[in-house]
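pinging the channel bc i need a second pair of eyes. not urgent but kinda urgent?? the chain im working w is below, pasted from the shared doc
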Amino acid sequence: VTGSSPADMCINLRLILVSGKTKEFLFSPNDSAADIAKHVYDNWPMDWEEEQVSSPNILRLIYQGRFLHGNVTLGALKLPLGKTTVMHLVARETLPEPNSQGQRNREKTGESNCCVIL
């Protein structure tokens, strides 16, 4: 495309940590959640030092209230090129169970320790 800069062909991700700290990174639509986690881990911002994790494998992205599986690409999410998209970045060993399973478990115990966004 004539006259477009490389940034127009990328997705700008603004990642927010639980602490509230944010940082922006540029990614290609072909990058997967696992690629993003590895890139962020390898280029961990200096002002995020207190939140440093031991491995990129425990970094999880949350987009619109949902954990993204490692093989999901930004293109598959239909994120707009050249625009900023906000995601949360958390350290978590495993992904939560699918909603239906979690719903059943909560009904049995009567407790709720997570939110389901519909």
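so Residues 6-91 form a domain with the Ubiquitin-like (UB roll) fold (CATH 3.10.20.90). and The chain has a mean pLDDT of 84. — does that match what u expected or am i reading it wrong
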